[in-house]
Task: structure prediction
Amino acid sequence: MTRHHLLLTFALAGAAFSQAPAPAIPTYRDLKYPPLRQIKIPEPVTFTLPNGMKVFLLEDHELPVFNGLALVRTGNLFDPPDKRGVSSIMADVLRSGGTRAKTGDQIDEELENLAAAVESSMGETNASISFSGLSESTGTILRIFHDVLTGPEFRQEKIDLTITQTHSGIDRRNDEPQGIAEREIASVVYGRDNSYGWTVEHQHLARIQREDLQAFYRRYYFPKNIQLAVYGDFSAAAMRSMLEALFADWNVEQPAVPPFPAVNVKPAPGVFLAEKSDVTQTFFTMGMLGGTLRDPDYPALEVATNILGSGFTSRLMSRIRTKMGLAYSIGAGWGAAYDHPGIFRIVGSTKSASTADAVLAARTEVEKMRTTEVTEQELRTAKDTVLNSFVFFFDSPSKTLSRLMNYEYYGYPKDFLFEYQKKVAAVTRADVLRVFRERVNPANLSIVAVGNPQNFGKPLTGVGKVEKIDLSIPK
Result:
């Protein structure tokens, strides 16, 4: 074949190929996903020690490590009004203050040599002592955990150090504007006269003595008031034997712990301004009392607030950031707690000049959720987002055991999450409209703004009556 004929052949072939229809390129919309498989939760070994302590054990032999967590039924909600902060000081010094036999520093050194940890902390409705380390050091780490839990010494020098550090934290509490907004919205919504909304001041710390820490510890740290979970590389039978022997001589008794304080507040609508002259942005939080996880409306409220303010496709983000260009980030969350109402929040930040516009736009989006049904696409996306997050609740033994332990601690059924999953899947557009109409009234929103009013483009009085927040720190 001549060179001319060869070129002609290629040209004809190319022409024929160019005339052939190009294969259709599939789009992401054509992708089909099978339904999520039902999550199978491993069943922990549960039993109660002779002294009344409830124990959960879950074996996991993937790595030669083990972890544990003791939950104590107490919390900073039990702080006396004149000695606010005593529970947190106690929890810190419970660990740092050492035991009768060893100082906290000696325990630090021993744990460091074992690549292990034992820590203590105080929350709102629970206290915890956690431990972790290599399975080859199980016996030693459990002994240290036992000694810290059952025989804290509360050495005075560590009490003084923790109180000094807490004083320093109070002095710095107005450094971060976002932190101010979060603190003040809780005080406004719950009220400043109760343990849900009050603030720890210098005067409260000044009243705390070693005897107060010891008294708080004795009241709440006893076996029948504690749940212990251990997971990792061990035999459940062997671990049970170790724990039974370790706690055989700890038989302290105390009266049953009373319920946590009830939340009895009324809406506190208004605009609350915390002036901060050293910022170029306004950080704002809009909030009102939310609900509990037991609330029959919780599944629909979670889906609804996802549509309102979760992710880049949410209404708040689409309008206030994308269309209006007023905020880099803004979002919303329903705020449900296990045993008391949380806070429904809208949280955002904006340039000082656009403060009023951003707040009004957010309130408008709340009102829209109450007036017309969301679209079918919005509903489907929000439900998928909530449902797809379930896999991350049980993607590790620690999360699995922690969730089951919390259900036991707060009196929830073991299948709570799966019943919640079914209820989320059943949420309709009408449900979303109904719960926002019944539960989220823009007229009841408390708005806390932290910023420099000298740079506001429009006065906040255009949003509502403004009450100034006193950021001064009493000595």
